[in-house]
Design goal:
alpha/beta; six-stranded mixed β-sheet; binds flavin-adenine dinucleotide
């Protein structure tokens, strides 16, 4: 249990995982200090839009955060409908009664998830030391420094636009190998990207195809486009405790293997770590109970997604997701179900090692991982 008489409790990393943990501890009266290597909140991101998914649990993610004492002090637009394209460019309208996800911005802009959580933390007297890279931490701490390698990358543009709000996704290996291309527009700003699980070396080619696809199919118009890229780490953690320190968020490997959605895992694991410190609960038991079943299902879903191929994905889209309430259908798919349980042993064997894109040999390669990630990866390794 956390000793209140000691120095402020250190959390390394001011992403959603670290800040969620810090806010819950501070609301319970604990003194906390957060260290982040970047100069400002959200420094890893480019003010691109991301989706805070709302389908993996029955309740609403914002209610879940509120129950833990985390207020939505960031812009969050509920998304209840959109369009999904299959590999033949056929469009399927999807809709749901409750928000499928909340559109948030990631980066240093006012109203971003990162700025909003950082302001909330500061209002609770949490000290956040930006520009403070931690390579080694003695004693107790929570580690939340984000991904350590690139199993998935996303490259795209953030831009201004006169388009109406909307969101579009396309499952086509010619745009995003084994992943998806997406276009998100809200309030005169847009994000277009190819999120790929392989083919990193040809990221420019896939991005060009993604841009021309959305220009052609939905009339995408970009003003002042700025290129951006990022990477994510998918792996099933054996443990989320290293050297006696609790590890949360993407650093622990908490990430959805199907879509690369890690924000809800980051927030939830931050809350679980705080509860374990406050209530003296076993963190290993908490994350295994709350997060492992979802992680297992997401690995099975990734296996099924790859196995299904273009035709199987079209069938799932046209027969299930577009025909029914999309949140309810995705909710069923994201909870353990008979097929996910049946294929789990195969999926675990297939994805035992980090996915690591074999097409990226790190030689003469300009993919986001080769450009930025490897140096950070080495720095991350030193904090262990
Ligand atoms: C382009 C892109 C699109 C994405 N889209 C979505 C989406 O739509 N939905 C979704 O749910 N997820 C999405 N994700 C994934 C999601 O952003 C991450 O899973 C989430 O940010 C993980 O949160 P975290 O707090 O664990 O780590 P991070 O957000 O990475 O935060 C870690 C922090 O630690 C700091 N840090 C690193 N090293 C050190 C060090 N040595 N010392 C001190 N500080 C350090 C970093 O500067 C950073 O601020 C996307 C990711 C990318 C790259």
């Amino acid at each position: 249990m956390l000793d209140t008489n000691r120095e402020p409790f250190p959390i390394i990393g001011a992403g959603p995982a670290g800040l969620a943990c810090a806010i819950v501890l501070a609301r319970a009266g604990r003194s906390v200090v957060v260290h982040d290597r970047r100069k400002q909140p959200g420094g890893r991101f480019h003010n691109d839009f991301q989706g805070l998914e709302n389908w993996s649990t029955q309740s609403d993610i914002l209610h879940e955060l509120a129950e833990a004492g985390i207020d939505p002090t960031f812009n969050h637009a509920p998304v209840r409908q959109g369009a999904v394209f299959d590999a033949w460019s056929a469009a399927y309208a999807i809709k749901s009664e409750d928000p499928l996800y909340y559109l948030v911005r990631r980066g240093d802009a006012n109203g971003s998830l990162d700025q909003g959580l950082a302001s909330q933390a500061r209002a609770l007297n949490i000290e956040i030391r930006f520009g403070d890279k931690v390579n080694e931490k003695m004693g107790p701490a929570v580690l939340a420094i984000g991904p350590r390698t690139a199993d998935v990358i996303a490259v795209g543009y953030v831009f201004e636009t006169d388009m109406a709000d909307g969101n579009w996704i396309c499952f086509d290996n010619k745009l995003a190998p084994l992943g998806y291309a997406y276009l998100l527009v809200s309030g005169g700003r847009g994000t277009v990207a190819s999120c790929m699980f392989t083919g990193f070396k040809n990221q420019r080619y896939f991005l060009e195809r993604t841009v021309s696809f959305f220009e052609r199919r939905v009339g995408m118009r970009m003003s002042n486009p700025e290129p951006f890229g990022g990477y994510g780490n998918l792996r099933l953690p054996r443990t989320a405790i290293q050297g006696g320190k609790l590890v949360i968020g993407e650093q622990a490997g908490f990430q959805d293997s199907l879509a690369g959605f890690g924000m809800t895992y980051a927030l939830r694991s931050g809350i679980l770590a705080a509860r374990s410190l406050l209530e003296g609960l076993d963190y290993a038991q908490l994350w295994r109970q709350e997060l492992l079943p979802l992680l297992h299902t997401s690995i099975s879903n990734r296996y099924l997604f790859n196995l299904a191929g273009d035709r199987g994905r079209r069938w799932a889209l046209s027969r299930h997701i577009a025909k029914n309430d999309a949140k309810k259908t995705l909710h069923r798919l994201y909870r353990p179900w008979w097929l996910s349980r049946a294929v789990l042993p195969l999926a675990l064997r297939r994805y035992k090692a980090p996915l690591k894109d074999k097409s990226c040999d790190h030689v003469n390669c300009a993919c986001v991982w080769c450009e930025h990630g490897m140096a950070e990866g080495k720095a991350h390794a030193q904090t262990q």
